[in-house]
Each structure stands twice: as C-alpha cells, then as structure tokens.
C-alpha cells in the first residue's frame, strides 16, 4: 500500500496541524453553504408550487389593528380564516369539541394574528398564569410556529394563554421534548381576554424581531390550541400524536408575504446596574454602579452579530438548592440571557449533559459557582444556505490566581437529507486553570419523520471528540452513537458512549472519565377509552471502566405509567442497581462508604396531580437498599393557584439514609411566592433551606416590563446561617437594573 509523504507529515505532527485543519474546515464549510443556496432555492420553489401542504394566502393591511385582545378592528374582517382544526388528543383524527378561528394579516412592519377560541363553557376556561416565559402546558393556550426560511427544521415559537401570559422560543429539532429552546426572548406584543363566547387574543410580531429572507414570499406556519379541562389538543397541520406543532417539515405554508421591512437590523440595549453587597462575616460592604450594553446587528437577514460590554447577570434567576448524595458533580442549567440567546446553535449531537463539549456555565462562574466578571464578548450566529454556524468569544476578568483570559467556541452544521445534518465544534480556553485547553468534535445526526411513508420517526447520531490539554497526553477521546425510534405506539432506543481517561472538556461538562456506557429502552403505549394512555417500559444501563470492569448498572423492569384524561399520572417501577466502588466514597462530610461491589434493589413510585386544578402537585417515593444499608427518598410538591394574580409552590425533600457506618437525614425545603399584578409586572420570592449547609436563602425578584424590550429589575438576596439554632446573616445583596432596547 502506497502512502503519500503528506500523510506521514500530518500523522507525525497532528498536534500542530490539528487546529489549522479544523479551522480550515470551519472556514470552508460556510462557502459550501453558498454553493448549496441554489439547490435550496429550487427546493423552496418546488414546495411553493407543487407541494401538498396546507396553505393560506395572507392579506396586507393599511389599517393595523389595535392590540387590545379584541377582534373588532376593520382589518380583521378582510383576513383569511383558519378553522379546519383536527384533534391530536385525546381522540386523534376526530373533530374538535370547540371551534377555533385564526386570522392572519400583515403590513411592512408586523405579522398580526387574531385568535377566536370559542368555548361553550367560558367560566371553565383554565387560565391562572400571567407571568412571562412560564411553562403554559396546564393552561388554555394557543401555540404558533413560523418557519421564516422555509427550512423545514428551524423557526420561531410563540404561545399565549387566555390571561395574556406569553412564552416564546427558537424551534430546533434537537431542543428536547418540546422541540424548541424557550430561553430566547423576542420583542413582540400580545393581549387576550375572556368573554361570553370563549376567549380571544391578538398578537403582533415585529418583522425586526425575526430573521427571514425578504426575497422569499412564503413561510412555514402551524398553530395549535389546548383546551385543558378536556385534555384536548387540536392542530391545523399534521394533527398526529407522533408530530408536534414544532415539527416544521409538516407545517402549512403562509403565502403572499411581500414588502416586509427589517430596518437597519440594529438593536442597541444599554443597561445600568446598581449593586450593594454586604458580607456580614467579613464585615465589608461594597457599592458598585456598572453601565454596559448589548449590541445586535443583522449582517444579513440570516446572520446576526452580538456584542456585550460589562455583561451583568443581576436579573438571572437563582438556582434551586440541591444536596448531592452521588459521586458525580451536579449539573445546573444555564439561566443567563446572553448565553441563552441562540443557544441551540451550539448544541452537539444529542448529548444532554455528559460528555458535553460546551457548557456555557463554565464562562463567568468558577468551580465554587462564584461570579467571574465578564469584561466583554462577541457572538455571530446565522445560516448561509444549508449551513448553520455560531462563534462565541468572551473575555473574562482575573479572579484569585486565575488570569484574565479568552474563552471561545465555534460550531457549524450542514443540513442534509431534508432533516439531517453533520457538524463540527471547537472550543478554546480553560476557565479554572491557567493552562491551555482545546476541544475538537464531529457529529452526524440522521432524522426521518416519515420513515418509508409510514408517518413514523427514526433518528440516529454518531459523534467523536478529542481534547488537547496541558499535561495530559493520550486517551483524550470521547465518542458515541445512538439510535431512536421515538414514536407514540413504540418508543425504542439504544446508546453507546466511551470517554477516555484524559478527556478534558474545560468548557464542557463530563460526569466521569475513563468509562464506557451501554443504554437501551423499550416503551409501548396504549390509549384506551377511559384513560389518556397506559405505558409499559423497560430500561437498561451499564457503565464500565475501559478495562471492562463494571462501575454501575441499573435495570427498570417493568415501569408502568398511567395517565388519566384529567392529566393525572402514576409511575410504578422496581429498580435493580449495581455499583462498584474502587475507592472509598465520602457521601457527606465525615461519612465514607467503603470500597466493594454493592447490589441493591429499590422501588419507585411517582404521582403527578394535574396543574390544571387550583390545587395540584406531585409525590415521589423511592426506597430500599442503598450500598450496605437503606435509603428512603421522599419529594413532595404542592402548587396552589387561587387566582391569576397569586400562586404559591412548596417543595419538601428528605433523604433518610442508614448505613453500617452512620445514619443521617438530609432535608431541603423550598417555598415560592409569585405575585402577578399583570403580564408585565411580576414579583417572585424564592425561599430555600437545607440542613446540610444549615443555610437559609431568600431571592426576591421584581420584573417590570414597561414595554416589550424595556425592563426594570429589582433583586434582593439574603443568606442566613441557621446552625446551632442561630439566625446570623451571612451575605446581603441588593441590585437594580434597567435595560432599554433601541431599534433601528
């Protein structure tokens, strides 16, 4: 076999050439998207002319409606009406029990949607939430999705309930169960009201909020309505349980969109934050006034650049308090707006937590979750033809012994085969040491939501990553593969992953290195007349060291699930665990579990009581063997929603552990008070305590949305030491932030 000298040069100098090669591929993949543009345009024309998808031709108005929740404006009389909805649940394919009418019109600056949701019993409409961005799955609501590039995969999501609560997001097929990333916050307007015929809503979406191609006059569109007391979901296009309103390749089409304006594509958001912080232990106080800004510029209709200076996260929601009784680090979701915007661009393969190549909470927070000042950052995200890409670079300040440094990530994917893609990712920087760290990865994801014209979904993906870290040589790979058949009747899947001993994603997240994992599940669903569903599931997982010795395993056989027509749920399953400790494990301070191989059998049951009621909640119980002793875990949660203006949620968690060495009980309590004065003025108070740290914490957060894009925050945090039956303040923090969006 003849090998070229170039092959040997690359092989022998892979560490040197690898960054150059990866960068070259990344830079070359974007022009490839331009070459693919003509092919995509041909595809769009085919859909518009020959497609059999549902369509509606929009009408342009010169008299925009007043967004007050009423449909009495003259413009609505000329609007096309969508009323041919079909049940998705509980009776797939049946006619809806209540009529729904959707009207759509537009002008150069807005897309307008009018909703008339008829209801024969308007006094029974469920609408107890007014807060922005809260999950509305227990409410009577309307859900809208727009595929502005007719890509059949990505788009925008908007939802509103009968009280005017709004939720939005970015549609992405890899965004999880809902099919959208809810942490995107767009500027849009909406009001709704309940009347004697049901409820109505008006929505106005500025064209400046959306990325789209002005040369294309057709968008993908779908709409869905939930009637909660009947557990009824109705949809306009693709009304099947296997599909979602966010499945854009099955969406209908809006036609005749002409003359839409995007302006100069500039959003300038100056902000100012005043913060007072007192450390009662050290006896110090600090006052800080920090101005800053975020700047967004649409380089093209499909490419957006973002810049931030003196980034501040004072308004970010507080993390829920958790006690860790495992050997693995806890994973806390990102809650900061700058990193959440366009976060789906940087998702890799179908990895939810470990081994994640990029985890944005590594930026601006150290190992102890202390804030590290972000001096500034830049981000470019968008699409060119079939290519989606994102580049994020942030400069963080020095803290303790860690130098000021740059932390960056680049990601690009190429759309293939209608719903599939292949992509690459690269990260640079180590936020917790002064060493260098690089990561490179490749993934291929296949998806077919109409496998062999059966309407069934098939998905699979493969990925490989390598890290290059100072002081670590060899065995620095992570790779895996997954197959899924995620359908309503049968949900089947299998996964494999391997993580090298020296795999070190400094800007990512990994639970444990030097492991292999095998995982599979099989789920069968039935839909009897007197229940929404009955499910039977088997689950198997085993993790080993790279030499094949078992680390841990778990088997769930069988798991039974029942869901009633009122959305109450019951889970029952036995669980069979194996765990082998190769070194003692400190489960809490001073208590060690000795090395050895442990087998323990446990029983789990969960009950969920529908949040559609004024009083709902859940109970989780798991008990049985635990290493060489016993453990009982109980989590009880209750939510009370007496009015749209006030609700309270309380959760109590206890772990009663009895081991041969010691016994202990861990308790965590959280109580949330939520005052909803209007959809634009919300006051949330979160109180948390646990007996492990013996600390009580309160987070009080007021958000006043003066107008969409213009927000004022008041945040108060107080930490208290409750050990030895004392009540001693630890840290007090008060901050005020005003952010104002200027659009051009």
Walk me through the structure:
By secondary structure, the chain is mainly β. Among the domains are: 25 residues, no CATH class; 203 residues, Sandwich (Immunoglobulin-like), CATH 2.60.40; 175 residues. Helices cover 7% and strands 52% of the residues. The strands form four sheets. The chain has a 24-stranded antiparallel barrel. The protein is globular, with a radius of gyration of 27 Å. It starts with a helix and ends with a strand. 33% of the residues are buried. The N terminus is likely disordered.
Topology:
Layout: H1 5-12, H2 14-35, H3 37-50, E1 55-57, E2 59-60, H4 74-77, E3 81-82, E4 86-89, E5 100-106, E6 110-118, E7 141-147, E8 155-161, E9 166-171, E10 180-181, E11 189-195, E12 198-206, E13 219-227, E14 232-235, E15 252-255, E16 266-279, E17 284-300, E18 303-311, H5 337-340, E19 374-384, E20 387-396, E21 405-416, E22 420-428, E23 437-448, E24 458-469, E25 477-486, E26 490-499, E27 515-526, E28 533-545, E29 550-563, E30 569-581, E31 585-588, E32 591-593, E33 596-609, E34 615-626, E35 629-643, E36 646-658, E37 663-678, E38 681-690, E39 695-707, E40 710-721, E41 728-740, E42 742-743
Parallel strand pairs: 1-15, 2-5
Antiparallel strand pairs: 3-5, 4-14, 5-6, 6-12, 7-8, 7-13, 8-9, 9-10, 11-12, 13-14, 13-15, 16-17, 16-41, 16-42, 17-18, 18-19, 19-20, 20-21, 21-22, 22-23, 23-24, 24-25, 25-26, 26-27, 27-28, 28-29, 29-30, 30-33, 31-32, 33-34, 34-35, 35-36, 36-37, 37-38, 38-39, 39-40, 40-41
